[in-house]
Design a protein that fits this description.
The structure holds two protein chains of two kinds. Chain A is mainly beta. Chain A has two domains: about 80 residues, no CATH class; about 70 residues, no CATH class. Chain A is about 5% helix and about 30% strand. A five-stranded mixed beta barrel of chain A has the order 4-5-6-8-7. Chain A has a three-stranded antiparallel β-sheet with strand order 2-1-3. In chain A, a hairpin with a 4-residue loop joins strand 5 and strand 6. The longest helix of chain A is centred in the first third of the chain and has 9 residues. Chain A is globular, with a radius of gyration of 17 Å. The two termini of chain A are about 35 Å apart. Chain B is α/β, with parallel strands linked by helices. Chain B has one domain: Thiolase/Chalcone synthase (Peroxisomal Thiolase, Chain A, domain 1), CATH 3.40.47.10. Chain B is built from 13 helices and eleven strands. A nine-stranded mixed β-sheet of chain B has the order 3-2-4-7-1-8-11-10-9, sandwiched between helices. Chain B has a two-stranded antiparallel ribbon with strand order 5-6. In chain B, a hairpin with a 4-residue loop joins strand 10 and strand 11. Chain B starts with a strand and ends with a strand. Classes of the chains: A mainly beta, B alpha/beta. The interface between A and B is large, with 35 and 37 residues.
Chain lengths: ~160, ~400
């Protein structure tokens, strides 16, 4: 990432707050780069890492997985995204036991796609369609309150 | 490059062996493989062993030495992990080792123990094959990931649930005479259609079961076989492997599996054959849609046309190109770390003529095996040929 500074060989993309385990941990394991990205998405400032050729990826990254460029810069995600595919999940993993049934979706957000839970729709196959316009944010998992990437239908506001 | 031959194959019955330790399952498969091969254990120079979630299922890491003990071999032993393609990559390395002349006899295969865990824990364990940060934390399960691919496929190319139900029904029918299969019972298309949803559009009979089992192969050089009078008529004529972005959402196309395209291209090139030469295929149908994607990546069908192959009777036992005559992962079962080895065991028997379904492919000379890991972020393809 461009703001990490040359020569940084360890604490990629982290503000250092949780890396030593002394700060409040949003998840059982902290993942520098990812946690920061999730916080930004929650604040409405979601971003992708984009190389000069326009390939987008999600952190933590040191090089572009498409072309190997190390000149990655933060680019904002699109304000609304398009549902590219989805599934209504009826049999969840334990971490989503109380969330099921729920809709999981892959959404095109401009420089990257993101995967998350689509809320604000009935969890039924015919209540959702590919092409639906949605916004992306962070909400709590019903099962244990942990943060997760969530989409909601774009109401145009 | 020397010719790698399958001298012997061994499987446990696939199904529930909830009270059997993994080492015991692999010992059974290895014993059967040695018996089938007529090769003495002391000739084995390497063990390549596949396993995915043994640390979770049995609190057992470092499984390769344990499995060498269980199989009664004393040689360099390595565990390969590539999710559901673990045994596929283990076999591939055995073939490469023999083909390179580094060993004359390699024992390869895998084992997975799953039914001793509650279903929820198996679901979580299998999800470990996806990207934890960007998929699993976002609610993606293993069936859910393939459901995302199925929705994308229907959207891009057409097809419907009933097409997939025909895949399930076909593979269940194929498993009927297979003594190693977990589910030897027919499932009608209507029964599959009416089953409860797991991750829409996939329902219960679109999904493979939870399975315990092990597979083992004795891979030898053609020179060794000739020298020791070992009957090994089936050659591994080509092997290929491909890798893709881990997360489905990062792929160029959500309804294709280019890692398998790459693996197939390499395997066909090495064997000097093409998709038109294939007489029979064993493919990784962990979900019905996965069989469709596999047959398209193998070039057996054009992209977008594989979905109707079972419904049209092309890939059924009596069709022009039978796919998953073993019953596939779908009905034979899917002990994930053993599956890649079992596919080659089944294909070897189909080509040798001693499989209960060999009668459907009496003149088959070329078979292809396709083994996938995760949502096909890993893929391994092998081309088998009747060499003599």
């Amino acid at each position: 990432m461009s703001d990490d500074g040359a020569g940084d060989d360890g604490d990629a993309g982290s503000d250092g707050g949780d890396a030593d385990g002394t700060g409040p941990t949003p998840t059982p394991v902290s993942d520098a780069g990812y946690d920061e990205w999730l916080d930004a998405l929650a604040a409405g400032e979601g971003y992708a890492l984009v190389c000069p050729d326009g390939h987008g990826s999600l952190p933590p990254r040191r090089i572009c997985p498409d072309c190997g460029s190390d000149a990655l810069s933060r680019e904002p995600l699109a304000e609304t995204g398009r549902v590219e595919t989805f599934s209504v999940v009826h049999v969840p993993s334990p971490r989503f036991a109380d969330d099921a049934p729920y809709v999981t979706a892959v959404v095109d957000l401009g420089p990257v796609r993101a995967t998350g839970v689509l809320r604000g729709v009935e969890p039924e196959g015919d209540a959702v369609e590919v092409g639906l316009s949605v916004t992306a944010g962070v909400e709590e998992r019903a099962t244990d309150g942990e943060p997760l990437v969530a989409f909601r239908p774009d109401d145009g506001e | 490059m020397t010719d790698a031959r399958v001298a012997g194959v061994g499987l446990t019955r696939f199904g529930s062996h909830a009270d059997r330790a993994g080492r015991d399952l692999f010992a059974t498969a290895a014993e059967r493989a040695f018996e089938d091969a007529g090769v003495p254990r002391e000739d084995v120079e390497e063990l390549n062993y596949g396993n995915f979630m043994g640390a979770l299922a049995e609190h057992q890491g470092h499984q390769a030495p344990l499995m060498a003990e269980a199989a009664g071999v004393r040689c360099p032993a390595t565990r390969y992990e590539s999710a559901c393609a673990s045994a596929g990559v283990a076999v591939r390395e055995a073939v490469r080792t023999v083909a390179a002349g580094d060993a004359d006899v390699v024992l390869a295969g895998g084992m997975e123990r799953m039914t001793n865990l509650p279903t929820a824990e198996v679901t979580e364990g299998l999800a470990m094959a996806a990207d934890d940060l960007f998929e699993v934390r976002s609610g993606v399960t293993f069936p859910g990931a393939y459901a995302l691919m199925a929705t994308a496929y229907f959207e891009a190319y057409g097809g419907e649930r009933r097409d997939l139900a025909h895949v399930a029904s076909k593979n269940h029918a194929n498993a009927l005479p297979n003594e190693y299969a977990q589910y030897r019972r027919e499932v009608s298309v209507d029964e599959a259609m009416d089953a409860p949803p797991v991750a829409e559009p996939l329902h219960l009979y679109d999904a493979c079961p939870i399975t315990d089992g092990a597979s083992a192969l004795v891979v030898v050089s053609a020179e060794y076989a000739a020298e020791h009078d070992v009957d090994a008529p089936v050659a591994v004529a080509g092997t290929g492997q491909g890798t893709d972005r881990m997360a489905l959402g990062d792929r160029e196309h959500l309804a294709r599996t280019p890692a398998a395209d790459d693996a197939a291209e390499a395997a066909y090139a090495a064997a000097g054959v093409g998709p038109d030469d294939v007489d029979v295929a064993e493919v990784h149908d962990c979900f019905t849609i996965a069989e469709v994607l596999a047959t398209e990546s193998l070039g057996l069908f054009e992209v977008g046309e594989g979905v109707s192959a079972a419904r049209e009777g092309i890939t059924t036992a009596d069709g022009d190109l039978p796919v998953n005559l073993s019953g596939g992962l779908k009905a034979k079962g899917h002990p994930v770390g053993a599956t890649g080895g079992s596919q080659i065991a089944e294909l070897t028997r189909l080509l040798r003529g001693d499989h209960p379904n060999s009668e459907h492919v009496p003149d088959a000379e070329v078979g292809v095996a396709h083994n996938a890991g995760g949502t096909v972020a890993s893929a391994v393809v092998h081309v088998l040929e009747v060499a003599e």
